[in-house]
C-alpha cells in the first residue's frame, strides 16, 4: 500500500459489532522464528499471522540460508536452518529501519557463524529506545562489537560463555537477547531483573522444546544451563494479547460488541481488571473473549503502565481513546516509554480533553519523572469526538486513531495506515467484518 492507497476514509458513528480472530503474537512469532536459527533440525511454527514484522524476519532468515516454507496447516511455517551461511551486508542493510527484531539475531548468528551484522533498527517511535543493555550483555558473553556507519558488526572469537547478568530494567528485548544467547553458551547464565512477559515465557517454551535448560524463579531470575546442540521445535504461538486488547478498546469506544476469537484470559488478566473498572463488559469462553459496552456511563480510572504483570504499555494507547468517553478525570502514567503520549494531540483536535504532564501522576515515581518527559496524562470526559485529518504516528497510536475515527461523528482521513500492517493482520478486512464504514479514496466502501 503506497501513495493515496495509504489513506483511509473512516465514516464514524457506527458501533463495531461481530467476530474477529487473533492469531499468534507479534511479540513472540518473529522471535520464535529467530530461535529456529539455533537448531540443527527444522522447526514448525503454527498460528503465524501475516504481518510485516514476520515478513521482515522471514527475509532476514532466508538471507542467512534458512529455508522458510509454508507447512501443512494455514499459518504454519517450516524453518530449516541446516545450511546457515553468512549474508551479504548490503542485503541485510536493505532491512534497516524495518523492525526491532534484527537485534535478536546477534546470539544465534554468533553461535552459528562466529560473526553477525545488525542493521539500524526500526520499531515504534515512542521513546529513545536505546540498545545499550543488549550490547552490554553480549559483551559479557564474550562478543566483540564494532559500530560502523551502516550498522553493528559483532564477532565471537571463541565460544560464548555463560555469565551472571543483572538488567538495569526488566527489558523484554534484552531478556530475549540473553535467552537466545545463553542456551548455546558454555556453562550457566543467571539473569536477574528479567522481564517475564507471557511472550517471553512462550519463547522459553520454544527453546525448551529445542533442548534448552531454562528455569524461572518467582523473583525475575532466569537460569539457563548452556547445551552443546539444539534440535528443532513444533510450537503453536500464543495468541496476540495486544491485538485482542485493541479490539476490546474499539468495542468500548464505539459502544460496540466484539467477540475476539483466540483471546486468552491468562495473558490478559491485568487488562481485563482495568476494562471492568472502566465499565466495559466481557465474557470468557474456551475459544475467546467477548468484549462489549454494556450501556450507561463509562467510569474514569487511574492507570499506570508497567512491565508484566502490570498494565502493558502497548494496551495504553487504544484504551485512552475509550477513556475520552468516560465520565470524570482519568489519569494515565506511562512508565515504560518516555514519549508514548504524543498521539493524544490529534485526539484533542478531534474534541478530546487530554492534558499532558512532566510529573509522575497517579502514585509511583518512575524513571522519567525527573527528566522532563511529558509522560503523564489527565483525560477529562466524556467528550464528543469529531472526524479529522489524522497522520498515524506509530503502530498502537495508529490503531487508536482508527478507533477514534470510528467513534467520532463525521468523516476522518487517516494517513499512513500501512504502518498498521506491521502488527495487525488483515485489519481492513476485520474492520469491514465488524461493520465499520471505511473507504479507500477512489474506490467504493470496502
Ligand atoms: C518486538 C517487541 O517485542 N516489542 C515489545 C518489546 O519492545 P522492546 O523489547 O524494545 O522493549 P524493552 O522492554 O526492551 O524496553 C523497555 C524500556 O527499556 C529501555 N531499554 C531497553 C533496552 C535497552 O537496551 N536499553 C533501554 O534503556 C527502553 O528504552 C524502554 O524504556 O517490549 C515492549 C515493552 O513491553 C513492548 O512495548 C514492545 O511492543
Ligand atoms: C512498541 C511496539 O512494537 P515494537 O517494539 O515492534 O516497535 C508495539 O507493538 O506496540
UniProtKB/TrEMBL annotation:
Classification via Gene3D superfamilies: Enolpyruvate transferase domain
Enzyme class name: transferase
Domain Enolpyruvate transferase per the UniProt entry, residue ranges: 11-431
Family annotation (InterPro entries): Enolpyruvate_Tfrase_dom (IPR001986), Enolpyruvate_Tfrase_sf (IPR036968), MurA_subfamily (IPR050068), RNA3'P_cycl/enolpyr_Trfase_a/b (IPR013792), UDP_GlcNAc_COvinyl_MurA (IPR005750)
Alphabetical UniProt keywords: Cell cycle, Cell division, Cell shape, Cell wall biogenesis/degradation, Cytoplasm, Peptidoglycan synthesis, Pyruvate, Transferase
E.C. code: 2.5.1.7
Pfam families reported in the protein's UniProt record: EPSP_synthase
Active site (catalytic residues): 124
Region forming the signal peptide: none
Substrates-to-products reaction catalysed: phosphoenolpyruvate + UDP-N-acetyl-alpha-D-glucosamine = UDP-N-acetyl-3-O-(1-carboxyvinyl)-alpha-D-glucosamine + phosphate
Pathway: Cell wall biogenesis; peptidoglycan biosynthesis
Residue ranges the record marks as coiled coil: none
Sequence positions that bind UDP-N-acetyl-alpha-D-glucosamine: 100, 314, 336
Presence of keyword Cytoplasm: yes
Binding site for phosphoenolpyruvate: 26-27
Gene Ontology terms, MF aspect: UDP-N-acetylglucosamine 1-carboxyvinyltransferase activity
Function: Cell wall formation. Adds enolpyruvyl to UDP-N-acetylglucosamine.
Annotated family: Belongs to the EPSP synthase family. MurA subfamily.
UniProt name for this protein: UDP-N-acetylglucosamine 1-carboxyvinyltransferase
Species this protein is from: Streptomyces solicathayae
GN (gene name): murA
Amino acid at each position: 500500500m503506497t501513495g493515496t492507497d495509504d489513506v483511509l476514509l473512516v465514516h464514524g458513528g457506527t458501533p463495531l459489532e461481530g467476530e474477529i480472530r487473533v492469531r499468534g503474537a507479534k511479540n513472540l512469532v518473529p522471535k520464535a522464528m529467530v530461535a529456529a536459527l539455533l537448531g540443527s533440525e527444522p522447526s514448525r511454527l503454527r498460528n503465524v499471522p501475516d504481518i510485516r514484522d514476520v515478513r521482515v524476519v522471514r527475509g532476514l532468515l532466508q538471507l542467512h540460508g534458512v529455508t522458510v516454507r509454508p507447512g501443512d496447516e494455514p499459518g504454519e511455517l517450516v524453518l530449516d536452518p541446516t545450511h546457515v551461511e553468512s549474508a551479504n551486508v548490503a542485503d541485510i542493510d536493505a532491512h534497516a529501519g524495518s523492525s526491532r527484531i534484527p537485534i535478536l539475531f546477534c546470539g544465534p548468528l554468533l553461535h552459528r557463524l562466529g560473526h553477525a551484522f545488525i542493521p539500524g533498527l526500526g520499531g515504534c517511535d515512542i521513546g529513545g529506545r536505546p540498545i545499550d543493555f543488549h550490547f552490554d550483555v553480549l559483551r559479557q558473553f564474550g562478543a566483540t562489537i564494532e559500530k560502523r556507519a551502516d550498522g553493528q558488526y559483532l564477532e565471537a572469537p571463541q565460544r560464548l560463555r555463560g555469565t551472571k547478568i543483572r538488567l538495569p530494567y526488566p527489558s523484554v528485548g534484552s531478556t530475549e537477547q540473553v535467552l537466545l544467547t545463553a542456551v548455546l553458551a558454555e556453562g550457566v547464565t543467571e539473569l536477574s531483573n528479567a522481564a517475564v512477559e507471557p511472550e517471553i515465557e512462550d519463547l522459553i517454551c520454544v527453546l525448551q522444546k529445542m533442548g534448552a535448560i531454562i528455569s524461572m524463579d518467582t523473583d525475575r531470575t532466569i537460569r539457563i544451563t548452556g547445551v552443546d546442540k539444539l534440535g528443532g521445535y513444533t510450537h503453536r504461538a500464543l495468541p496476540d494479547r495486544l491485538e485482542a486488547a485493541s479490539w476490546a478498546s474499539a468495542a468500548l469506544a464505539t459502544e460496540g460488541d466484539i467477540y475476539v476469537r483466540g483471546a486468552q484470559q491468562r495473558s490478559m488478566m491485568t487488562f481485563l481488571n482495568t476494562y471492568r473498572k472502566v465499565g466495559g463488559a466481557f465474557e470468557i469462553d474456551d475459544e475467546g473473549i467477548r468484549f462489549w459496552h454494556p450501556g450507561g456511563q463509562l467510569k474514569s480510572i487511574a492507570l499506570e503502565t508497567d512491565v508484566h504483570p502490570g498494565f502493558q504499555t502497548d494496551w495504553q494507547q487504544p484504551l485512552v481513546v475509550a477513556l475520552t468517553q468516560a465520565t470524570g478525570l482519568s489519569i494515565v502514567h506511562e512508565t515504560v516509554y518516555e514519549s508514548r503520549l504524543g498521539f493524544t494531540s490529534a485526539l484533542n483536535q478531534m474534541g478530546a480533553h487530554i492534558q499532558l504532564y512532566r510529573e509522575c501522576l497517579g502514585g509511583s515515581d518512575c524513571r522519567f519523572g525527573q527528566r522532563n518527559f511529558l509522560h503523564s496524562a489527565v483525560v477529562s470526559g466524556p467528550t464528543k469526538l469529531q472526524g479529522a485529518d489524522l497522520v498515524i504516528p506509530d503502530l498502537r497510536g495508529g490503531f487508536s486513531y482508527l478507533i477514534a475515527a470510528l467513534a467520532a461523528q463525521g468523516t476522518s482521513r487517516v494517513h499512513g495506515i500501512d504502518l498498521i500492517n506491521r502488527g495487525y493482520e488483515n485489519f481492513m478486512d476485520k474492520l469491514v467484518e465488524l461493520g465499520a464504514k471505511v473507504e479507500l479514496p477512489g474506490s467504493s466502501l470496502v
